[in-house]
Write the structure tokens for this entry.
Amino acid sequence: MKKDKMMIVMRTDLDMGTGKMIAQAGHAIIGVLTKGIVAYPETWFETGMKKVVVAADSEEVLLQIIAKAKELDIPVYLVTDSGLTQVEPGTKTCAAIGPAKDKLIEKVTGSLPLL
């Protein structure tokens, strides 16, 4: 069975604390699954809902990854922070990419290091 996975692309240049990054990743996951962006892929649920977090060292890299995912019709949800705690309002902190087939999603995020 071919597996699906979701990638969380997290900006590492913002000096967010660990808890803040976890909260942002949660926003991204919930966003991509509940905002009508993606139909829930049964295979993703059946195979453990694999999620991997990778690092983007700038907003530019994050936006390039999002553009590449959209070109391949992979679901994307970008998190823009409201600025109540550690970052300025409107800061793009992370994105959920997928879920999608492993090989397809690796074309988008395969060059990024694990967080």
Q: What stands out?
A: The chain has a mean pLDDT of 91.
